[in-house]
Amino acid sequence: MKNLLTKGIIVSLLILSLTLSACSPAAPTEDPVLKITEIASTVIAEMTQVAALTPSATPTPEPTATATMAPPTPTVAVVDATSTPTARPVVADALTDDAAFIEDVTYPDGTIVKGGSTIKKIWKVKNTGQNIWLTAYRLSYLDGLQDAKGMLYIHIPYQVRPNEMVELSVEFNIPANGKVVSWWRLVNVDGKPFGPPLSLNIVAGEP
Prior knowledge:
Layout: H1 2-23, H2 32-53, E1 99-104, E2 112-114, E3 118-127, E4 138-144, E5 153-155, E6 165-173, E7 178-187, E8 193-205
Parallel strand pairs: 2-8
Antiparallel strand pairs: 1-3, 3-6, 4-5, 4-7, 7-8
C-alpha cells in the first residue's frame, strides 16, 4: 500500500512538471526533473517518519463462545407395573339394630279389661339385627297411655344376642271405660329407635 502511494505521488509530480515545462516560455533556472526528484524524496521521507510514529493496529481477538451447560435431565420415577399396591384399611359399616314382633303374650288387641284395674302388658320380640342388645337398650314410650309409674322407658331385663327373643313388659293403670291405646318402641344405646312399634290396644269396661 505504501509503495503504491509513493509511485502515485511521483507520477503526479512528473505529469505536473511536464505540464509546467510545456506551458512556460522561458527556460527554467533549475532542472525541473531534479527539483521534482528532490520534492519526491522529501515527501517519501516524511511519510516514512509518520508511518514509524503511527502505532500498528492491534487485532481485536474474536470473542470465544462460552459453552452453555445443558439443564440436568429430570429423573423420572419408574413404576413397577407388577408391584402390589399398598392395601388401604377398609372401615366396616356400623352394625345394625333391628327387631321383629313375635306375639302379644298378654292382652292381645281388642281385649276387654275391667276399668280401674292395673295390668301388665307383655310383648315378645326377637333380635333380628347384628348387635347384642345390652341392658342399656330400652323400650321407650311414644304416645297414648303412659306407664303406671310415669316411666317413659323400660330397660330390657338382660342381654339379647342376635336371633334370640325376649319378653318386654309395661304396667298400666286402666281408666274406668273406653278404648285404651299406648305405643312403645325399642331404642339402642345411642338413642336411635329401631324395630316396629309395639302397642297396647284394649277396651276398658266390664269383661
